Amino acid sequence: TAGYCSFKTELGGRRVASIDLSDKVVDCEERLRLTLAHEMCHAAQWLIDGASRPPHGAHFWKWARRFEQKVPGIEITTKHSYEISYKFTYECTNCEHSFGRQSRSVDLARQRCGKCGAALRLRPRLNEDGTPARQRAATGFAAFV
């Protein structure tokens, strides 16, 4: 998810919206512009129209079309197609299905491939140029733990 718009109603009936962006996904100006435009349409549908559901219904598209008319070069869609750079990539030892994570959140001893059920492995980390990344030495705290 590149961004998320949260809605709430405060005491007294005042509607509030807040937008959160993922710095792991929104990592350039173009992605910022497109993601913020999308999330601002959600904010408008809530703050001005009072509608939160469906998330990509008529109220959302009303604001999306208005935004596109006012801001040249913006095309609002419901899903992004950004290539995301992950710190960690896991792959199946059997079917080679792969997926990425920003942290080491997969327990290789416990979790299995969702497609075929085989064991998973962590791919070696690569630099941006495709060369293997240098492994850092364990810190004193890591050795202690």
UniProtKB/TrEMBL annotation:
SMART domains cross-referenced by the UniProt entry: SprT
Coiled coil: none
Superkingdom of source: Eukaryota
Any one of the GO BP annotations: response to stress
GO cellular component, one term: nucleus
SprT-like domain: residues covered: 1-123
Pfam family name, one: SprT-like
PANTHER family: GERM CELL NUCLEAR ACIDIC PROTEIN, TRANSCRIPTIONAL REGULATOR
This protein's name: SprT-like domain-containing protein
Species in which this protein is naturally found: Chrysotila carterae (Marine alga)
